[in-house]
Design a protein that fits this description.
Elements (H helix, E strand, L loop, with lengths): L1 E6 L4 H4 L13 H6 L9 E4 L3 H10 L4 E4 L16 H4 L3 H8 L12 H21 L4 E6 L1 H11 L16 E8 L6 E9 L7 E5 L5 H14 L3 E6 L7 H8 L3 E4 L12 H23 L7 E6 L1 H6 L5 H9 L5 E7 L4 H6 L2 E4 L20
Parallel strand pairs: 1-4, 2-3, 2-4, 7-11, 7-12, 8-9, 8-10, 10-11
Antiparallel strand pairs: 1-5, 5-6
Helix pairs in contact: 6-7
């Protein structure tokens, strides 16, 4: 069975970074404008019963039957609801709750364990009911906390604590569900987003020339529009003409190799060192991206990342986690000849470049200013 699990659109409290919880606020006008209808047309959509989930479902999936499941409502923040982190930071009860990683019960509300148990029990019952009826897909529009609790409990593909599953408004996951009851398990197929301003994932692959050129051209456009751009050139050392120019415009460029030559001609020991270098590089960049935010949006270009995986000189699970659990504002572009199947499934843009003719076939080597 497949499950679409989505967070509602923006409310006034979301925009002001206030704890929303069980308060029944509608979407803002901007929140409505930012959402767009899905091409999927499920016959019924489960919502939490709060206005923001119903209104989101009506925009994303017009004409469906909307069924309320109150047990899927957001955590009850009790006395914290309607207030910001800054307004609460001096209160002992709030400090105690934060230090307990939300397991402490909010004054007048819930703690993380009680909340997670409520959510997961409701989802187990819902999946079991739909499976008994032979349903192939379930669509659920709920809340950020609801998704975090469910993913922490049921998703075994990626290790991740509650807060690491945070999503932007209008975002979610396409999941493959297996098992039943306490053995229910979810496997991520794709990151979903129906928010117009959220970052997307691109894949440019194939034998044809132009994959890197497309990515760098997109970087130029992003820089001109005020985006932050980070470029990682896997399996390459410094020397490409386009990166030098993009750096002068503000792009941050990193190289997987520090020596010339092809990875395919490396020894086993050299490949092991390259794998360690490139994995550490991507780990550091991923950590930086997770811990920062840009109001103008960010772009990460992973040039020749397909080659890095094919040559086994990069940790594949690290890349998979970055793509499927990326920050909401991050646009990711991946290039290379032979992508893994999951990369095409996870991407929003997929373009294959096929070669029909190339001077290399006549013996002409790469030319400065054209190929590099």
């Amino acid at each position: 069975m497949r499950i679409r699990l989505l967070r509602h659109g923006e409310t006034e409290y979301n925009r002001e970074w206030r704890f929303l919880g069980r308060k029944d606020l509608p979407l803002t006008e901007e929140g409505r404008r930012q959402l767009f209808a899905s091409k999927d047309r499920p016959g019924r959509v489960y919502v939490s019963g709060l206005k923001r989930t119903l209104q989101t479902a009506q925009i994303l999936y017009p004409g469906a039957e909307y069924i309320a499941v109150p047990e899927l409502q957001e955590m009850d923040f009790g006395a914290f609801e309607g207030r910001t982190w800054m307004e609460l930071q001096e209160e002992p009860a709030f400090q105690k709750w934060i230090e307990s990683e939300r397991f402490e019960i909010c004054p007048g509300g819930e703690g993380r364990k009680e909340f997670s148990d409520r959510i997961c029990n409701a989802l187990i019952a819902l999946v079991q009911k739909e499976e008994s009826e032979g349903t192939q897909e379930i669509t659920i529009v709920s809340h950020g906390g609801t998704i975090m609790a469910a993913m922490e409990r049921f998703c075994t593909d990626l290790s991740g604590q509650y807060g690491e599953w945070r999503l932007g408004n209008g975002e979610g996951y396409l999941l493959e569900s297996t098992g039943q009851g306490r053995n229910l398990r979810w496997h991520i197929r794709k990151r979903l987003s129906y928010a117009k301003n959220a970052g997307r994932v691109h894949l440019y692959y194939g034998e044809g020339r132009g994959k890197t050129s497309i990515a760098m051209g997109t970087a130029l456009r992003a820089l001109a529009q005020g985006r932050e751009v980070r470029i990682v050139q896997f399996c390459k050392n410094e020397g490409s003409g386009e990166t030098k120019q993009l750096e002068t415009l503000g792009a941050i460029v990193s190289y997987g190799k520090d020596t010339p030559g092809f990875v395919s001609s490396m020894t086993k020991e050299e490949k092991e060192k390259l794998r360690e270098r490139q994995t550490k590089l991507l780990e550091r960049i991923a950590e930086e991206l997770r811990n920062t935010w840009s109001g103008s949006g960010r772009m990460l270009i992973l040039d020749e990342v397909c080659a890095a995986l094919e040559q086994e000189v990069l940790d594949e699970k690290l890349l998979w986690e970055l793509v499927l659990r990326k920050p909401s504002d991050l646009e990711i572009l991946m290039t290379g000849r032979h992508p893994k199947a999951w990369m095409a499934e996870a991407a929003d843009y997929v373009t294959e470049l096929k070669s029909e003719k190339h001077p290399y076939e006549d013996g002409l080597a790469a030319r400065r200013g054209i190929e590099f």
